[in-house]
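Here is a complete protein record:
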Amino acid sequence: MKIIFEEPAIGIKTNSFMMEQHYYHKVLNAQIHQLVRFFLNMDKQRIIERYCHLNPLVNKEKLDQLLSYKPQHVQWSGTDLFHVTTEKGNKRIIVIENNSSPSGQKSMPLLLNMRKWAAIKDC
């Protein structure tokens, strides 16, 4: 993947997306980890049930509300998550920032059943 900033932006039309031009080369033939694949294939209710089982103090309704939120302005936003440990040894994952672009996608192997959606879907 090579980005040439001097050239003007081009539109990506339906069925014209070429993964080789948008993903890192190591990602194109990489296999996604089984645990990640399993998680990404879970539906929202299953994720909520498992998360609340592991974190019994979490309000299920509030979590469902947060996971159902649809942003109005920055629809392709993303966040950076970090594994951290407190002084008392409690392990957590925290959100560090919001991004206006999910650029990490070009680094993550695709699910086999998601390859057809590697490009941005028509809205």
About this structure: The beta strands are 78-85, 91-99. Residues 44-54 form the longest helix (11 residues). The mean pLDDT is 79. The chain has three domains: 1-32+110-123, 33-69, 75-107.
